[in-house]
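## Example record

The block below lists the input lines for one assembly entry, exactly as stored, with component labels intact.
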Amino acid sequence: MKRNLREQFIWLLIAFGGWLIIDLLTFGGVINSFMLTIITMIEINVILAVSLNLILGISGQFSLGHAGFMAIGAYASAIITQSLPTIWGFFLSIIVGIVISSFIALIEGIPTLRLRGDYLAIATLGVSEIIRITINNLEITNGPKGIYNLPQFSNWSLVYIVACIVTLIIVNLIHSKTGRAILAVRDNEIAASAVGVNPTKYKVIAFTVGAAGASLAGSLYANYIQSVTPGDFTFMQSISVLIMVVLGGVGSITGSVLAAVVLGVVDTVLQNYGALRMVLYSLILIIFMLFRPAGFLGNWEFSVKRFFTKQKSSRENKS
Amino acid sequence: MEELIQQLFNGVFLGSIYALLALGYTMVYGIIGLINFAHGDVYMIGAFIGFFLITELHLNFWVTLVLTMGLCALVGMLIEFLAYRPLRHHGAPKITSLITAIGVSFLLENGMSFLFGGDSRSFPQAIKLVNFKVGFIHITNIQLLILIVSIALMVLLQFIVQKTKMGRAMRAVSVDQEAANIVGIKVDQTISFTFAIGSALAGAAGVLIGLYYNSLDPLMGMAPGIKSFIAAVFGGIGSIPGAAIGGWLIGLIETLTFTLGISSWKDAVVYAVLIVVLLVRPNGIFGKKAGEKV
Amino acid sequence: MKAKPQRVKILALFAFFMVFFSGCAAKAKATGNESHSSDVLIGANIELSGSAAAYGQAVNQGIKYAVDQINKDGGVKIKGKHLKLKLVVKDNTTNNYQTAMASSNLASSAKVSAIIGPCVSAGVVAALPKTTEAAVPELSPSGTADTLTLQRDGSVQPYGFRTCYTDSYQGVILARYAKNVLKADTAVILGDKTSDYSEGLIKSFTKEYKGKIVDTMYYQAGDKDFTATITKLKNKKFKTLFIPGYYNEAGLIIKQARQAGIKAAILGPDGFSGDTLFELAGKENVTNVYYTNHFDAMAAGNENVKPFINSYKKKFKQEPSGFTALGYDSVYMIKQAMEEQQSTNSIKVRDGLAHLKNFKGVTGTMTIDKFHNPQKDVIVVKFLNGKKVSATAVK
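Predicted structure tokens for the full assembly:
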């Protein structure tokens, strides 16, 4: 247990190091406010991709409904911070968003998670679209116009911290008893239930935690961009998160983080190509997938632990 | 009441387009288990090909229809050969093919938008519109044409799949690729053929829709693409009659939302019905129960 | 699991440090971008792909045409120097977060003096915080939502501008036109529930219209089948059909309605403007159709209108649409703002735009009011049998 703690401490140090580098570069004027925008967007995408990977890669459930949960978080924050424009109001709104979306995920998950593969994908897509259409038709959400002129509470630094915490929580969840049960259900549902693991229960756990992550990302997004419209959360948004997860490697949390970063950079570069932008993007996507079908990292995972034990063993070999 | 019956007719005509598209989805899914996201965009390409054949080469409508189906079949085979086959040979996970399918879909949409602009074009009126009135029901000759052509193509398809040698090969490959290979079926060729047929149907739908609504644009495949996939799921992916029934069902649900005055909830109603159907019948209306392997 | 409290402590410590240190990156007050060479950079943040691509591409065409014209005519004259305009175009894919990124890129990285775009209201709203932070004005050619240029407390957005009139302005004019000119005391509205443009128009029309609104129905952008709607319409009694939407759907609605024998007057907003409407509807069906437009040769508000239409037609072999004209005017507005202020500094350009008076644009002679909306005439055009029979400027 102690060693585990040390690893986590090192992990946090690395994260802190990354944060410090960005902070110092900003302070030194190397990173301008545009780059900070990209960095913040990448961080938000990291939260989305990691939480979807928990559902898709770790739990093995094909969900196309991430945008819906993101919408719930975003609108919760938008509505609450409108009338309560303080940082505490913002934190409250994050919690409200997480509670609502977890609740919906629970209700949605219990019946639908027994569907298989693509049927589940379409069912989750359906729920996500129903959420969006509901938002589009309600008064409190201001219909298709959305809500704007929101106060800006999230900045790159806050989102960075939240992204690290979310990643840490999900990685810890994977390595816990619950996580092993989730993996067991993914690998062989029948065998898992034979040894007393309730498949539905663990699928729903993964699904709900993933949904909460999406909602959190939505809240941060809303108060960063300072506006939300139903059009932000269409099925295409779910697809773009899915692309990140597959590009990084299904099941690899490190891969999801990496893919969010790479796609953020690619997006920025492609902005300059005018109408060719999406053509190039799709070509890159197709060619990349043809040459690396398992994504950047397959299911390889960066691990502080392995990093250190490897070094140690090589040292031992030398002596 | 009269309005309701008229709306039912409208729903059937709208639904036959969804059904025609759903057939392509269902065939490809049935044989290689891939949601061919680019299918809706092949339909768009079909509309564009039809547009150019009529306006530039001044061909007659029936020749255009057949030629478009042939060209779209080629497009479908090309997509399969370039984007999906390498992955299949590689033994890549299905989700990878799904992402390339999304990539192909983006490429077709944005490539066409880049080449021809994003604005709608008007489809030439290749067949003169005639209004019929049967009792109190209004029908146009083009609506009837769509219905008849769709049904004819569905029957033809059912015949190909059930009665021909290629159809037997398709069914064999869909059950077990390796076993099919062992008994001497050329798997790649069969899959290629499936894509050709599915895409030809999409091309036909493109021309028919172009003629019916008189409008085409590079993004026209997006919404019907998803809708018709849902139609395929409704009916049970892999089942040809299922796809047809699913298409008509969605068409009817959509038009009914207008009668009920809840048109702004149209898609939500479609999805809600879909979810309920899936919960009652997890493999769709006509879906086969996949036996669980232990 | 004993380690748990310690984990929490570490996390808390970590979070504390970061929040503590993030003070280091305090922002300096923006001083605006300006040109230091013989070029002036202008940014365009436009919907070149995605669902609004059709309209974005039209606007972009107008912008490019205007930049070429200005450079051909000697560029922007500032302090005796002739500066050439240089356009930096970013495609925002009609996605709000890409739009925010694009504006941030133009304002903070490309260092442009002014930004034209986005075309869609929701995009403008997403982009404004970024440009405000960098002190660069954002001039939307076609974002019509009323609240676009307003902050939450109702004060004006310092860096938000627009070239077109607002939804409520247009909605009011259409409502009055329906009642007073068309003498229609009953109306049906057929709008797009997913579009804020449509919603805004419905709201202001409903509020102003003195007749009876029989029903309000909805379609969705991208729909091609309207038979269900039309069937419903046929069983209703009304004098005018108001379609607050764009030509891509309106063209089809007009065609299908006329073919089904609906003869009522059809009223539309500026979204109708463009040749595509006639192509889609079929010329013979565009009869008894009225819509608002930004410019028209028959109701030219100033001497710039006709030459623009003629030279544009000569070059591109088609009528400029309202979107193209708005993109075109946006560039000239920025040029005039720069010349009046004799500066390319983005803060000065903002001041110039805010005080723009009697600007002779092709979409009318306009003066920017204190809420950064242009005060200009709305032109209502009337069509019979596919032919324009009149165009009148309405104040």
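The mean pLDDT of chain B is 89. Chain B touches chain A through 45 residues (CB under 8 Å).
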